[in-house]
Request: fold
Amino acid sequence: MGPKEQAIILKSFVRILKILPGSKINLRLDVETVVIETLSAVSVCIFNRIVNSGRSVRKLFSHGYDAEFSGESQ
Reply:
């Protein structure tokens, strides 16, 4: 465990489990083995990474969209 109560997992396990930075995991002891389970937050991390990697849309010109939809040019 790190100083911020964060688990440190070997890189090979991270690749196998497809864990991303910020992913939530569940560690449990099953008899004499440690089980690492990834929680549904992984899909949220992937979605956020995809959204943040694209271009930012700051303005939406609805009139331009209407003209394009009707086949007219501006």
In short: The chain has a mean pLDDT of 75. The longest helix spans residues 41-53. DSSP finds three helices and two strands in the chain.
